[in-house]
Amino acid sequence: MQVNENKEFQPLIVAFCCNWCSYAGADLSGTNRLNYPTNVKIIRVPCSCRVNPMFILRAFQKGADGVILCGCHPGDCHYTSGNYFTRRRMTLLFSMLDFLGIERDRTRVEWVSAAEGAKFAATMNEFTEAVKKLGPNRRLEDLRCRKQ
Amino acid sequence: MQEAIISKAKQLLADGTVNRVIGWKKGEFAYDITPAIFESAEEIDADFVYDDFTSANVSKYLVKESKKEGKVLAFLKPCDTYSLNQLTKEHRVKRENIYVVGIPSDGKLDAEKIKAKGITGITGVEKDGDTLKISTIYGEETMPVAEAMSNKCLSCKSKKHVTYDELIGEDGEVIDSNRFGMVEELENMTSQERYDFWRNELSKCIRCNACRNVCPACTCENCVFDNPDSGVQNKAAADSFEENMFHIIRAFHVAGRCTDCGECSRVCPQNIPLHLLNRKFIKDINSLYGEYQAGADTTSRAPLNDYTQDDCEASIVHERGVE
Predict the structure, then answer these.
(1) CA closest to B185 among chain A residues
(2) What was the pLDDT predicted at B227?
(3) Which phi and psi (to 5°) does residue A52 adopt?
(4) What is the pLDDT of residue B230?
(5) Cα(B68)–Cα(B82) distance, integer angstroms
(6) pLDDT confidence tier of residue A2, bands split at 50, 70 and 90
(7) Tell me, what's the pLDDT at B304?
(8) Strand pairing of B131-136 and B122-128?
(9) Residue A148: pLDDT above 80?
(10) What distance, in Å, lies between the first and last C-alpha atoms of chain A?
(11) Is the alpha carbon torsion for B231, B233, B238, B242 positive or negative?
(12) Residue B203 contacts by C-beta under 8 Å, 6 or more apart in sequence?
């Protein structure tokens, strides 16, 4: 018997959040009782620049349908310049994913400060909707990791 | 040209400037030439060769060779000097232990392209203007040189030696050869078409790692793909994801350091156009962060080790091109 036949597709979103801004922003959106989808799983990183391109690919491999990277606004990095490097790195990586035909809306970089709880919630709502429209990640998935 | 190179090699060996030479030696057939190290004039006389099939870039061997005792002589074509310059910049070679003799190159040939014309049993080739005279065991054949030219030479970026201690022949100029043509063509396709194109190409990958091993920019002593815990250790890809990942990461790790020497595609036994991935990065870097040619000098900062406060945001990828 198929139970979840009419169930709407629920994407799995992985959000890499930097410890100093975005993670605190997520915290603030929680204490402000703002809603954002439960599809979003947050992974805390010391700085957005800790995120290696491999992390993004690994997230897709392990079943993510969308990956979002949040960090401090340019100029506000706790380590002075980490997010500037992130910005170049991710621009090139996303451009390459696009070049290989992976849907470009599955990846995003967003700058969220510790005071922007509302922005965090809004970004996550919007991103989840965008990924939901794309449907499950098929172009960059690992069949061995697919949950039956 | 071969005579001039051989006499130069022997002269430098004889006067003690160097104690060994990196060059090329004949293989079993006229066209399977491999890089080799020669330590004496006798060895050079016996095996040394420089002709239209010596396309291998010997710069990468210098990483290891330059750390040994004494000086090593390397014959570098213009494109190879970019690779050496990049390695010098990254402190991967001891430049003072290398004696570079720049040699001209008018484009190397791809034996596979000749064989594709049904010409087999090749014993030698000779360029005569625009026609290529091929001697085979079945007799003489001819074909246009341009059709036999290897892909990496068809989109040659420079005939200029960026580093050398001595030159044989004349130095050339940087040339504009529309090398991003194919990348642009792909960019103008739809996302589905691009996906199909790359699936078709990358699914041929047998993970022989030749592209990684030959790449003069890939000089990490411990490669991420050799890590037994990575789950992507040397083995055939079990899933399309692994094929994508290997090639994205391979190209990303040399982004901003790749001199576009084209060795990755040349050695690929499956003929995957891997240089397109590297060129895509080069094109993006050029258009987003300013023109940059890796290996052109030894002082400038690599684009990925650098930033400006008003770099574009990653969302630029969403704003341009075809969906």
Answers:
(1) A99
(2) 81
(3) -85, 145
(4) 72
(5) 22
(6) low
(7) 92
(8) antiparallel
(9) no
(10) 14
(11) positive
(12) B240, B243
CB nearest A75 (choices: B187, B309, B321): B309
Measured between CA atoms, the residue of chain A closest to residue B184 is: A99
Tell me the chain B residues in contact with residue A57 when contact means C-beta distances shorter than 8 Å: 244-245, 248-249
- Measured in angstroms, the CA of B175 and the nearest CA of chain A are apart by 26
Distance CA B113, CA B134 (A): 13
Domain ranges of chain B: 1-107+158-177, 111-148, 178-323
Residue type, A61: Q
**Widest CA span of chain A, in angstroms?**
56
Query: Cα Rg for chain A, rounded, in angstroms?
Result: 15
Entry pTM: 0.92
**Ranges in chain B, pLDDT < 50:** none
Closest by Cβ to A88, choosing from B195, B277, B307: B307
Please name which of B272, B281, B261 lies closest in space to residue B59, comparing C-alpha atoms.
B261
Task: Quote the CA–CA distance of A61 and A132 in Å, as a whole number.
Answer: 18
Three-state SS annotation for chain B: CHHHHHHHHHHHHHCCCCCEEEEEECCCCCCCCEEEEECCHHHHHHHECCCCCCCCCCCCHHHHHCCCCCCEEEEECHHHHHHHHHHHHCCCCCHHHEEEEECCCCCCECHHHHHHCCCCCEEEEEEECCEEEEEECCEEEEEEHHHHECHHHHCCCECCCCCCCEECCCCCCECCCCCCHHHHHHHCCCHHHHHHHHHHHHCCCCCCCHHHHHCCCCCCCCCHHHCHHHCCCCCCCCCHHHHHHHHHHHHHHCCCCCCCCCHHHHHCCCCCCCHHHHHHHHHHHHHHHCCCCCCCCCCCCCHHHCCCCCCCCCCHHHHCCCC
Tell me the residue ranges of DSSP E strands in chain A: 13-18, 40-45, 66-71, 107-111
In angstroms, rounded to a whole number, what is the distance separating the alpha carbons of residues A100 and B191? Answer: 8
Residue B244 CA to residue B272 CA, distance in Å, equals 13
Among partner residues A84, A101, A139, which is closest to B311 by beta-carbon distance?
A84
- In 3D, which of B55, B54, B75, B72 has the Cα closest to residue B63? B72
CA of B254 to nearest chain A CA: how many angstroms apart?
12
ipTM > 0.85, yes or no: yes
Angle of CA points B107, B216, A92, to nearest 5°: 100
Bridge-based pairing of strands B72-76 and A66-71 is: unpaired
Cα separation, B101 vs A32, in Å, equals: 69
**For residue B76, what are the β-bridge partners?**
B102
Question: How many beta carbons lie within 10 A of that of residue B228, not counting itself?
Answer: 7
Q: What is the pLDDT of residue B106?
A: 87
Q: Of B167, B54, B177, whose CA–CA distance to B107 is shortest?
A: B54
Token couple for A98: 């696009």
CA distance A92 to A127: 20
| N-to-C CA span, chain B | 51
Question: Could you identify the residue written with the tokens 């690994």?
Answer: A58
